[in-house]
């Protein structure tokens, strides 16, 4: 910080006075030398020597006068300089006091500058805070704009809903009018039904007596039905025993063959053993398999009592491969499966099984054993199933 200090500044006034006095003396010396040289030169000039001496006397007189004047001026200047120095020294105390006041002013100025700087820092912080608040205000402004946009969209949606509700109200009013007309028609129909109900009540009274008689008959029929159900249950129980014996006998007769497998209450014979692809004529290998099964069925005919009504269901099944167009024997898999089941029945009858014990049926590809997604599964679906059951 700039600081003035008049008290410590050196006093150069006496040196200035000495220098000025020395300059005046040197100047007088130079003038004397110049006059001397000029006079000497003129004296040695014979032609103008007298005149030159006269002129030199005049010039010397004028220069002496000038030197006297300059001496007087020098003395006056010295007197003025001494006086000025005295006045300067007398004013030194006042200058010192003023110097002190200037220091105080400078200190005060520095204090004010510090305060201003502190206030400037505070102002800059306030400006930064205001800028941050301004940024927050802008963000809030953007949010308000977005909320305003959403409000308008919601208002539009509400207006659309109001329009739809008004349309619904109009439809409801028309529907209410229609319902009122229907209600009037229903009231007239209700009157008709009331009259009919009175007639039916009268008929109901007559029917109650008839119901009592029918209840007596129902009790008699229920007793007979319970007796028949008991007999049927006993017959089914016997049938289960014969079914187990039949499957056990067939399994023993066939041995360990992969072409005939048991699945629950039925035997499954692969069609590829019995028939060629697309054919319903039995192969020789298929006839041999059926011969073994027919012997077991004939043996069961001798074991199962005659009062039990039993049959062998022969069900034909195919895969979902479509029939080749132009086939004259059959047009779809349903017909092919029935023809194959009938061929099996005919072969069993040829081997000595009573026809009344055999019932052929064809299901085509309606009930696959496995999904028709692979060749192996499609081969499993081409099959003949034999099941011992009651009529």
What is the gist of this entry?
This protein is of the alpha+beta class. It has helices at residues 13-43, 49-90, 92-254, 271-274, 284-303, 333-350, 375-381; strands spanning 260-263, 266-270, 310-317, 358-362, 383-390. Helix 1 (13-43) packs antiparallel against helix 2 (49-90).
Are there runs of 5+ residues with pLDDT below 50, and where? 1-6, 222-236
Q: What is the CATH level 1 assignment of the domain at 256-390?
A: Alpha Beta
Could you tell me how far the N terminus lies from the C terminus, measured between alpha carbons in angstroms?
A: 128 Å
Output the helix-strand order. HHHEEHHEHEHE
| CATH architecture title of the domain at 256-390 | 2-Layer Sandwich
Strand order of the largest sheet: 1-2-5-3-4
Number of strands: 5
List the helices and strands and how they pair.
Layout: H1 13-43, H2 49-90, H3 92-254, E1 260-263, E2 266-270, H4 271-274, H5 284-303, E3 310-317, H6 333-350, E4 358-362, H7 375-381, E5 383-390
Parallel strand pairs: 3-4
Antiparallel strand pairs: 1-2, 2-5, 3-5
Helix pairs in contact: 1-2, 3-5, 5-6
Please give a structural write-up.
The structure is a single chain. This protein is an alpha+beta fold and 391 residues long. Among the domains are: 13-90; 256-390, 60s Ribosomal Protein L30, Chain: A (2-Layer Sandwich), CATH 3.30.1330.60. The protein is 73% helix and 8% strand. The protein has a five-stranded mixed sheet with strand order 1-2-5-3-4. Helix 6 links the parallel strand 3 and strand 4. The chain is elongated and about 205 Å long. Mean pLDDT is 76; it is low at 1-6 and 222-236.
């Amino acid at each position: 910080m700039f600081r003035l200090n008049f008290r410590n500044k050196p006093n150069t006034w006496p040196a200035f006075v000495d220098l000025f006095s020395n300059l005046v003396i040197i100047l007088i010396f130079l003038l004397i030398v110049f006059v001397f040289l000029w006079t000497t030169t003129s004296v040695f000039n014979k032609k103008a020597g007298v005149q030159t001496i006269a002129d030199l006397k005049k010039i010397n007189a004028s220069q002496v006068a000038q030197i006297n004047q300059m001496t007087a001026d020098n003395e006056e200047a010295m007197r003025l300089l001494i006086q000025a120095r005295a006045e300067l020294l007398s004013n030194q105390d006042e200058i010192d006091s003023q110097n002190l006041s200037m220091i105080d002013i400078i200190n005060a100025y520095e204090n004010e500058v510090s305060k201003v700087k502190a206030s400037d820092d505070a102002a800059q912080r306030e400006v930064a805070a205001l800028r941050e608040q301004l940024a927050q205000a802008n963000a809030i402004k953007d949010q308000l704009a977005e909320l305003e946009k959403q409000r308008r969209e919601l208002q539009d949606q509400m207006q659309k809903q109001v329009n739809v509700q008004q349309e619904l109200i109009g439809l409801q009013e028309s529907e209410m009018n229609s319902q009122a007309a229907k209600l009037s028609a229903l009231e007239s129909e209700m009157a008709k039904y009331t009259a009919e109900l009175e007639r039916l009540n009268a008929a109901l009274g007559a029917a109650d007596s008839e119901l009592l008689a029918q209840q007596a008959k129902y009790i008699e029929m229920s007793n007979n039905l319970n007796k028949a159900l008991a007999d049927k249950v006993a017959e089914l129980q016997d049938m289960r025993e014969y079914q187990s014996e039949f499957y056990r006998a067939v399994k023993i007769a066939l041995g360990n063959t992969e072409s005939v497998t048991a699945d629950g209450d039925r035997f499954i014979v692969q069609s590829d053993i019995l028939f060629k692809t697309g054919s319903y004529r039995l192969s020789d290998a298929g006839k041999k398999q059926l011969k073994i099964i027919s012997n077991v069925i004939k043996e069961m005919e001798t074991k199962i009592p005659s009062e039990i009504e039993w049959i062998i269901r022969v069900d034909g099944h195919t895969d979902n491969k479509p029939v080749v167009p132009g086939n004259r024997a059959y047009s779809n898999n349903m017909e092919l499966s029935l023809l194959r089941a009938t061929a099996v029945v005919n072969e069993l009858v040829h081997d000595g099984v009573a026809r009344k014990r055999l019932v052929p049926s064809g299901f085509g590809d309606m009930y696959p054993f496995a999904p028709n997604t692979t060749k192996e599964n499609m081969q499993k679906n081409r099959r003949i199933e034999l099941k011992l059951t009651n009529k």
